[in-house]
Design a protein that fits this description.
This protein is mainly beta. It has helices at about 5-15, 80, and strands spanning about 30-40, 40-45, 45, 55-65, 70-75, 90-100, 105-115, 125-135, 140-145, 160-170, 175-185, 195-205, 210-215, 235-240.
């Protein structure tokens, strides 16, 4: 998917200025925390941990009446070392605005900075993206656009990721998770690829359990042992929001 950097940024800004339907009864200040353990941290279909488990956690603040929010999230990783750098943490910092355009259409726009402390790569792994998301009931479409090089890939500013999916309530507390995405790596077409996910999630109260099948349609991303980091696999995740 081709997209001009300035056009993508202006599209996000335009969405953020649209009048939202009032969120009546929403608490003024909402703070939540989350923690998870996963059998393999997959991001856009690619393993970030060389198929090993990861520990994850974060915190979010939402101003209820307006929908403005900020948050942070961390995960253990291995891929920066695999590329000859250092560090074993991904630290995400993000903020934006979400709301409703109508009774059936929601939006979410903002920016996300991926920070990799002491990653030592050249170009640096640190990445900033702006994003815009529209929701239509259980379905959604989202586009993310990098204003920097993408995760350490040289000359990749202006890369884009298109994400479409749905989270469908199938009864008895089970949610069917469907996703398809396409990562365009600007000026580096051999690294562009598509990825897919089919999963199911259930909240048991004490924790939420997710099982998903994930695959990236590429053989351009390999572990030091030569394993395809996008190969299909079943991923089990146990998480809790409180």
């Amino acid at each position: 998917m081709k997209c001009n950097t300035n056009a993508a940024i202006w599209a996000v800004l335009a969405l953020s200025t649209l009048p939202a339907f009032a969120q009546e009864g929403a608490p003024e200040h909402q703070v939540s925390y989350n923690a998870a353990i996963t059998s393999d941290y997959r991001y856009r279909g690619l393993s970030q941990t060389r198929f090993d488990p990861a520990l994850q956690g974060g915190a979010d603040y939402v101003h209820g009446p307006t929908g403005w929010y900020v948050g942070t999230w961390l995960s253990t990783i291995k891929w920066t070392k695999d590329l000859g750098g250092d560090g074993n943490i991904e630290w995400d910092i993000y903020g934006g605005k979400r709301g409703s355009l109508s009774e059936s259409v929601t939006y979410d726009v903002g920016g996300l900075y991926y920070f990799y402390p002491d990653n030592g790569l050249n170009p640096r792994a640190n990445t900033f993206e702006v994003y815009g998301r529209l929701g239509f009931g259980p379905a959604y479409v989202k586009y993310s656009h990098s204003t920097t090089n993408l995760f350490g890939t040289a000359d990749s500013k202006g890369s884009g990721y298109l994400d479409v999916g749905a989270d469908v309530d199938v009864g008895n507390g089970f949610i069917l998770n469907l996703h398809a995405g396409h990562q365009k790596v600007a000026h580096n077409s051999p690294y562009s690829y598509a990825d897919y996910k089919v999963g199911v999630t259930r909240d048991f109260g004490v924790a939420t359990l997710s099982l998903a099948w994930i695959k990236a349609n590429t053989d351009a991303y390999l572990s030091p042992q030569g394993k395809n980091l996008g190969k299909s696999g079943a991923i089990l995740t146990l998480s809790k929001t409180f």
